Amino acid sequence: MPVISRVVSMILRAGELAFAGIVAGVVGKYLHDYRSGSAQPLARFIYIEVLAGISLLLGLLWLLPFSSGFVHWPVDVFISVAWFAAFGILISFNGTCGRWRATEAFSFLSAIFWLVSALVGIWFIRRERRKAAPVAGTYTRRRWFGHRRSAV
């Protein structure tokens, strides 16, 4: 049993949950306090809030220690790219207050954690496939679409 990879995965998922919760809370406060102005910053805040909500949902679902949690690495890569985009959006605002800087930092950390989680998933899947590969000299069943031609 790959205990280390499961523990690392659970630690990463817990970090993803924490970072998404912090970003959701701070951006939610900004959305609550938003009064007027152009719709462009509001759309960016909504994007970040939705991304944080999706991250919270997926992080909670995939926090459970099942081996099928490692096959979700393509979604982890996608969420990581989305968090990097959110980080770029936050940087473009040039906020100076401490809460804003914390949101920038935690969005970057969330992107890194999602990316590392994807890398752990890729590593786990490759390792399991290597273990399941047949050993040379053992009998393997030939598929119907094999490479050998009929002698007829």
UniProtKB/TrEMBL annotation:
Gene Ontology CC annotations of this record: membrane
Keywords, comma-separated and alphabetical: Membrane, Transmembrane, Transmembrane helix
Domain MARVEL: 9-119
UniProt-annotated location(s): Membrane
InterPro entries xrefs: Marvel
Pfam family membership, one: MARVEL
Entry's transmembrane regions: 12-32, 44-64, 71-93, 105-125
Official protein name in the record: MARVEL domain-containing protein
Organism from which the protein derives: Exophiala bonariae
Taxonomy of the source species: Eukaryota, Fungi, Dikarya, Ascomycota, Pezizomycotina
